[in-house]
Amino acid sequence: MKPVLNVVPRVTVAVTAAPADGVVVSARSRTRGRKPLRGVTRRIRSKPLPLTVKAMRAVVQRVASASVEVEGRIVSEIGPGLVVLVGIHDSDSDADADYICRKVLNMRLFPNENTGKAWDHSVMQKKYQVLLVSQFTLYGFLKGNKPDFHVAMPPQKANPFYASLVDRFRNTYNSDAIKDGVFGAMMKVNLVNDGPVTMQLDSQSSKNTSDTAES
C-alpha cells in the first residue's frame, strides 16, 4: 500500500479592482505531487465606512392638531401645521439652525386644493402653525441595551442655542404661528399625525454635503 503524501498547496492571489460593491480576488493553486486545484474566483464585498452625522436633526410631522403638556398643564397647542422635534448635536452652529429653519418652513408637505397636487404648499403658504419641541434623544444610540446621549449638545449650552432657533422661526415666519415646548422639562406631546406624514431632516452646513438647489 502506497503511503499518503501530505500535500501543501501553494496559492497565488491576485486582487483586481471591481465595481462599487467590492473587489475580486482570484486564487490560482498549485500543488507538489498531486493534481492542481481548480482556479477559484470569489467576490469579497467591502464593508462601508461608518457614517458619522454631525448636524442638527429635525423630525417633522404634518399634523391636524398637537399640544404639549407639562405637569398636567397644556403649555402650547396648535391646529393644522407641523410638529418639529429638534435634536441638537454638540458641534452645531448658526449655519445648522439657519438650514433647519429654512427647510422646515419651505418644505412642501401640504396639498394644493386648487390644483389637486398633493405635495405643493408649505406651512407658510397655508398660513398654518409650527410647534417646536427640543428632543436630545434624537442623538442617542445604544451601548448594548443602554442609551447613550454624549454627542448631543450639553443642556447648559443647548438651552440658549435652542432658544435662538425658536427666534429664527418667529422672525422668518409669523411669531404668533410658532409655538414651543419647555426646554428640559418632562413633556407629554399629543398630536394627530395627518397622513401620516413624517420626515427627517439633517442640517447641511459646511461640515456636511452642500445643499442642493431648491426647486
Automatic annotation (TrEMBL):
Keyword tRNA-binding (UniProt): yes
GO MF, any single term: tRNA binding
GO CC terms of this entry: cytoplasm
EC number: 3.1.1.96
Primary subcellular site in the record, as a coarse category: cytoplasm
Keyword Cell membrane attributed: no
Coiled-coil annotated residue ranges, if any: none
Name of a matching Pfam family: Tyr_Deacylase
InterPro entries per the UniProt record, alphabetical: Daa-tRNA_deacyls_DTD, DTD-like_sf
Catalytic activity from the UniProt record: glycyl-tRNA(Ala) + H2O = tRNA(Ala) + glycine + H(+); a D-aminoacyl-tRNA + H2O = a tRNA + a D-alpha-amino acid + H(+)
Subcellular location: Cytoplasm
Keywords linked to the UniProt accession: Cytoplasm, Hydrolase, RNA-binding, tRNA-binding
Similarity comment: family membership: Belongs to the DTD family.
NCBIfam families: D-aminoacyl-tRNA deacylase (TIGR00256)
HAMAP family the record matches: Deacylase_Dtd (MF_00518)
Protein name: D-aminoacyl-tRNA deacylase
Organism (species): Arachis hypogaea
